[in-house]
Amino acid sequence: MLFPHLAHLSIAKLQRVSGALTNAVFFVTLTNNQRYVLRVYGSGCDQLLDRDNELLWLARLTPLKIGAKLLGTFDNGRFEEYLPSTTLTHACLRDPTTSVQIATLLAQLHSIVQVHPPTQSSPLHTNPALEIWPQIRKWYSLLQNNSSSSPSSLSSGKAVAGITWDEIEAYQRFLDRVQSPIVFAHNDLQYGNILRMKSTGDLVAVDFEYAGYNPRGYDLANHMIEWQYNYHGEHPALASPQHAPRRHQQISFVKAYLANHHLKSTTTVDQLLYEIDCWSVVCHLCWGLWGLIQLHQSEIDFDYAAYSAQRLTMFQQALQRIRNKSNITTPSK
C-alpha cells in the first residue's frame, strides 16, 4: 500500500484533467478534502519515455522546490503533490506579463545545469548527455520497424514519412556549428504544463516526463512553437500560425530570458533568435515522429494523424527555410 496512513479514507471525487496527451491525469480528492495528482501512464509510453530518467530528475528537483513533489509510484503511474493553482490557458501565452514570467521561469530551469551538470559538456550532437538526438534516433528506428538504433543501419533503411536519416544527420552536423549551451531543459513547456500559484501568482512548471539535458535553443524554440497550439480549442491537434509570436513578442521574451539567464554572456537578442529558429526545425521533427508513434498506440482521444502530418510538413518547411538562409547542402536521395 502506497499510503497506509490514508487507508481509513475513501475517494470523494475523481476528476480527469483534459489536455494531457501522453498520460491520463486526475485530481483525486479524499473524504478529508486532501487532494493529490494521479498520473496513469499511457499505453506504450515506455517506447517514448525513459521513466528511470524522469524519476531521477524528479528526485533532483524536489529538494530544489521545483515542480510538484513526487509522493509515490506504482507499476503504471504515480501520485504527486497537488499544488493550489490554476493551469495557464492558451490565451495566457500572449499576455505580455505572463510571457516575461515564462521566460524567467525557463531561465531558472535552465540554470539547474549548474547544480546538476552533465558528465560531458561538448555541444556536439554526439554528446551522450543530450536527450534530443538519441530520442529522435530511437523513435525513427521504431517507425522503421528496425530494432537497431545505430545511425549506420538507419541510413540504409527506408525513409520515414519521406524523411531520410541522411537528411537528419546533415542537419545535426549543421547544428554543431550553431552555438547553443547545454542546459537542463523541460522540453515540453506548453501552457498545460505551467501552473500559476494561487497564493503568490508565481509560475511553476510541472510534468517533467521529457526533461533532460538539451541545447537551450531547442527548449526555447519548443515553447515558442507551442503558442500555435490550443489543446482545448476547436481543432486541438492543429497549429494556428496566426497565433505564433510576432517579432516584438519574440524580442520581449528573449530579452527577459537573457536578463535572467545564469550565463552572463555576450549573446545578443538577434543571435538567440537565430539559435531558436535553427532548433525549431528539430522540434517539428521530434514531435512529428512522436505523433506517428502515438497514432498506433495511444488510447487518448486526440487526432495524432493530423498532428503528426502537420508537424512533419512544418519540419520540411522550416528545414528549407534554414537551408536557404544558411547555405546547407541537401543530401542526395
From TrEMBL:
SUPFAM superfamilies: Protein kinase-like (PK-like). The keyword Hydrolase does not apply. InterPro entries: Kinase-like_dom_sf. GO terms for molecular function: choline kinase activity; ethanolamine kinase activity. One of its GO terms (cellular component) is cytoplasm. Gene3D superfamilies: 3.90.1200.10, Phosphorylase Kinase, domain 1. One of its GO terms (biological process) is phosphatidylethanolamine biosynthetic process. The keyword Kinase applies. Keywords: Kinase, Transferase. Belongs to the choline/ethanolamine kinase family. This is Kinase-like domain-containing protein. It comes from Absidia repens.
